[in-house]
Amino acid sequence: MEQKNCKYSSWLTDYTFENCKLNRKEYGEFLIDYIVGEKNGFVLNLNGEWGTGKTQFLRRFYSGLIKRKHPTIYIDAWESDFSDIPLSVVSSELINQLSCVNENIGSDLEKVSEFLGKALKGAIIGGAGLLSKSLLGEASAGTEVVKALFEQSPKDFLGKVKGDHVEQIDAIKQIRKQLGLLAEVIKTNYGCSLPIVVLVDELDRCRPTYAIEMLEVIKHFFTTENFVFVIATDTKQLKNSIKAVYGSEFDSSTYLKRFFNREARLPSPDIEHYLSIQDLNFSDYENKIVIYPNLRTNIATSTNNYLEWASKAYNLSIRDIDQLIDKLKSCLRTVLSTAESSDKKQYVNLFCLIAALVEFDKNSPQFDSRKEDKPKADVSFEEDFGIDISLGYKNMYTDYYRINMHTSVMHNIQIIDNWGESANKKVYGVHSKTGIIFSQDYDGVIQSTVRNIENIFQQAVNNKDSKVWLWEDYKQVVKLAGNIV
User: Fold this and answer.
1) DSSP 125
2) What are the two backbone dihedrals, phi and then psi, of residue 412, each rounded to the nearest 5 degrees?
3) Residues 373-389: what's their mean pLDDT?
4) Distance (Å, rounded) from C-alpha 46 to C-alpha 264?
5) Which end of the chain is more exposed for a tag (fewer CB within 10 A), N or C?
6) What is the pLDDT of residues 134-153, one digit of tens each?
7) What is the side-by-side order of every strand in the sheet holding 289-292?
8) Rounded to 5 degrees, what angle do the CA atoms 283, 289, 290 make?
9) C-alpha to C-alpha distance for 191 and 212, rounded to whole angstroms
10) Angle at which helices 397-406 and 444-462 pack, to 10 degrees?
């Protein structure tokens, strides 16, 4: 039976490792096994770059833990970034989400709430109302406490501050003790498994000072027996945030080791698997758009190849790929609209269109400078992407890129005019046409692609009601799609 004793019960079906599009089930299950074996204030840093799917992974992690009966708390740190009191955020989420374990658990949380209230009392004036409402149920209580403090004489005020400091230090010790006891109560009375796991997401997106304070709160207040924390971050970005506070020469790597017991790197997503389950349906374009070059019998399969190669060549994240697919679909809809309004069949090089979308987003100089007679835009492109696209032969992405870019512009070529002024003198004229590459100069997938392009051009020549898209056409539609972010 599906469990409902958690805050995010819908995730149990919507976000599971069984339906993970990035094929991370094996790693997710491994990491759950690892985490539940740690029980004494363990803190794991789940490190993944922006756009690698950390939030998606963490939600599936949440579902996996809940299904194993581990009480799990999920905190979106960025969502609470407006607050100046990370302690109040963690405390309130901890209490509220543990309350979901059983509706009768309230009395078992009273001691924890009491000591959290003492630790928070008067800590930050601007946040007093927030913390008191979250923990004590009365927004005005904290504000009144602070107001009363400032109405006292300096001597009395100092004495009060010292007294509160001692009280807060004791409260920290009591919080740890009471949380440990609470965990045992939850296990014994409600049939849950230990440890209790707290997942913190989006910390690297927070204000630098807030991110640091959140780490300090977790370290000093909540690293206790039977509690485990998993903090998902782009650790490189988090280190930059720390340096923004303490200075560029500050050793942020050593600093972070104070908070994390271990680091787990989120593996690179399985792009091939991710693309294979995308909805790339070209049936709407049949008879109106000719999409080429076709590596396989199915243009959708060729599209997956192009997207996969582009993601590797330009180091695209999952978010980048999602945006690229959305923009590609919008461009093809524009092409379809052009075909219907002009009543002309449109011939579109899908590889060039994808490259144009990426180069525009990456501000590549060749996007604007590529033009007639200059397929590579006079940009040095001698470096090899190092991507083998052989499909049975030794072919490289760089070569495939070059032949498609070569045929995406018009070329001025000389032809012999046998009707020259003199029978003994050949006169050369200039004729513009799309670039021709001889297929016999290549093998494998590149050879078949060149032949495919040659056949497409021949079809277009024989069909007067047709339009072959060239680089200027791609630029125009891509700039329109560039407004989609």
Assistant:
1) G
2) -90, 115
3) 61
4) 5
5) N
6) 444 443 434 444 344 445 44
7) 289-292, 345-349, 466-468
8) 100
9) 35
10) 20
